[in-house]
């Protein structure tokens, strides 16, 4: 199965957080799964780290390199993603999450999230809390 991790799950996995559910740990450890992260998450970490947000107190490039070294695939943003993001219903206004949802939808990759609002979108999304 192909999975795209939302930003908080990336941070929790990197820090081996207790917030990471057993269900999520099982998905991450299953060698049959193909795991993706989006450049949108790297951008979000960079922006929020620069603003001094507590749960984003890490260097974006350090997270990116760690993900690549652990076999994650980097998902780039393209014009189709950018234009389709505006077509999503306004359930959630966070532009980072909206782009992750759009990428999952257009690329046919299941977005893993712990956000119940994100999980309401008509896209391949799995709530792992």
Q: Overview of this structure, please?
A:
The chain is of the alpha/beta class and 129 residues long. The chain has one domain: Rossmann fold, CATH 3.40.50. Helix content is 45%, strand content 15%. The chain contains 6 helices and 5 strands.
Write the layout of secondary structure elements.
Blueprint (H helix, E strand, L loop, with lengths): L1 E4 L1 H8 L7 H8 L4 E5 H12 L9 H10 L3 E3 L3 H7 L9 H13 L2 E4 L11 E3 L2
Which structural class matches the secondary elements? alpha/beta
Strand fraction equals 5-15%
What's the SSE pattern? EHHEHHEHHEE
CATH topology term: Rossmann fold
CATH class: Alpha Beta
Main β-sheet, spatial strand arrangement: 3-2-1-4-5
Provide a brief overview of the structure.
The protein is α/β, with parallel strands linked by helices. It has six helices and five strands.
Observed structural traits:
single chain, 129 residues, alpha/beta, Rossmann fold, 5-stranded parallel beta sheet, 6 helices
């Amino acid at each position: 199965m192909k999975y795209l991790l939302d930003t908080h799950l990336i941070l929790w996995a990197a820090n081996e957080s207790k917030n990471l559910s057993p269900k999520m740990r099982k998905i991450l450890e299953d060698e049959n799964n193909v795991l993706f992260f989006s450049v949108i998450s790297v951008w979000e970490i960079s922006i929020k780290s620069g603003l001094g947000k507590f749960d984003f107190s890490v260097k974006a490039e350090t997270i990116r390199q760690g993900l690549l070294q652990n076999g994650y695939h980097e998902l780039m943003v393209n014009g189709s993603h950018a234009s389709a993001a505006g077509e999503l219903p306004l359930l959630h206004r966070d532009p980072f999450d909206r782009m992750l949802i759009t990428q999952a939808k257009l690329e046919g990759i299941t977005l893993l999230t712990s956000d119940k609002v994100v999980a309401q979108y008509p896209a391949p999304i799995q709530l792992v809390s």
